[in-house]
Amino acid sequence: MPKIQDYIYRPEFECMSRSEMEALQSERLRKTVELVYNNCKPYRAKMDECKLKPSDIRSVSDLSKLPFTVKHDLREAYPFGFYSSPKSDIVEVHASSGTTGKLTVVGYTQNDIDVWAEIAARSLAMAGVTKDSLVHVAYGYGLFTGGLGAHYGAQKIGASTVPASAGNTIRQLTLLRDFGATHLCCTPSYAIYLGTEIEKAGMDIGDFSLVGGAFGAEPWTYQMRDELERLLHIDALDIYGLSEISGPGVSMECMQKHGNHVQEDHFIPEIIDPETLEPLPFGCEGELVFTTITKTGQPLIRYRTRDLCTLSNERCACGRTSVKMSKVKGRSDDMLIIRGVNVFPSQIEAAIMNVSGVSPHYMIYVDRVNNLDIMEIDIELDGNLASDRISDLEAIKRKVESEVNSYIGVSAKIKLCEKGTIKRSEGKAVRVIDRRD
Ligand code: DLL
What we know:
Blueprint: H1 4-8, H2 11-14, H3 18-39, H4 41-49, H5 71-76, E1 90-96, E2 104-109, H6 110-126, E3 134-137, H7 145-157, E4 160-162, H8 169-179, E5 183-186, H9 188-200, E6 212-216, H10 222-232, E7 235-242, E8 247-253, E9 260-262, E10 267-272, E11 286-292, E12 303-309, E13 311-312, E14 324-325, E15 330-331, E16 336-338, E17 341-343, H11 345-352, E18 358-369, E19 372-381, H12 390-408, E20 413-417, E21 432-434
Parallel strand pairs: 3-4, 3-5, 5-6, 6-7, 18-21, 19-20
Antiparallel strand pairs: 1-2, 7-8, 8-9, 9-14, 10-11, 11-12, 12-15, 13-14, 16-17, 18-19
Helix pairs in contact: 3-4, 6-7, 9-10, 11-12
Bound molecules: 5'-O-[hydroxy(phenylacetyl)phosphoryl]adenosine.
5'-O-[hydroxy(phenylacetyl)phosphoryl]adenosine is lined by residues 96, 139, 144-146, 149, 216-219, 238-243, 247-248, 305, 307, 328, 331.
């Protein structure tokens, strides 16, 4: 009998040679294309338009012949028009709302739930979760895939799972401490919030048993990781996913903390130039695209995620051979254009986290005054700031101004705020309020 942890770490897939992986992906891609062509009307229409038959797709090298899928396609087919399996085979439905329009719906067959549990379990195993761990899930449960995804993964490993869901910070901290949680799963911004509230709640991090966690659902910087690890005394790893493709676990960081391993036996990643839509080589930044190759309910072909990152095929010291994706810089639709310069909130975060005396709680406001874009960044002061001498505060402000300017090439007005005054989020953090228009 294999040990449960051996079973969740699947070297036969995670450490495959490139040629074996491509053979497996090709076989699974052929089956998926066949499935969607025969069962999903929008895919048949798309392929017919390109004069493609399933038999034209023999291997992964034919992937680029296939048309892309975008969020709009899913919304057009709302709610269930992208199913490739009969409705009676769908056992769970999730949906994401985004900022505009209809929900994007995803239906899962039992096979898809099993795939999701497998990738989530492999991911949590990378964060050190074993059968003996106690996993506290503070992602929201519901249509959002965070809560149930982490839950399925922890359950598959056989860990004790605490389905805390999001919200009620004091209760979260009490449960974490009293139950002796070893691993925390929530958004990185909420984890930072939990960390900064420990002292306020009259608790001591020394009384907690946390050793690790899987944090994702929003972009976060390496500097934010350092802060999170310092606050919670853990290894904080990045978990990535999106509902359309499966949920959390599509890719996961290993203990090397340098990029997320894509679960390539289930999803084929590509990077494309978002303007020309041409595939880009390893190391070039562009839009991440995924093709699912083991799902049956709602498989997606060349789904454009809008997430900007790079892919790398460099060998990882952990022994896994899968392609790694870099940290997501942001979504192309979250990019701000300020006085003609493209700015991502993650770049601003990286700049301000270089300055001591400020906390990771910030909000970016963008206005247009006399046809000029004005950016203001409100940042909370760090609680450890011993002195509130005007000259010290001025020095911090100037340092943040100069870091932001040199990181993104755009000046910003900096406002230092009292600790606890910037609105906290229990799920995905809202970092930008754009008041232009
Ligand atoms: O956020 C699934 C998830 C839950 C992932 C919990 C990780 C942990 P959606 O709500 O569909 O699904 O949002 C997907 O969130 O396209 C990215 O823009 C962003 N995102 C997710 N994980 C990360 C991450 C979930 N680790 C969208 N880093 C994606 C940066 C992330 N962005």
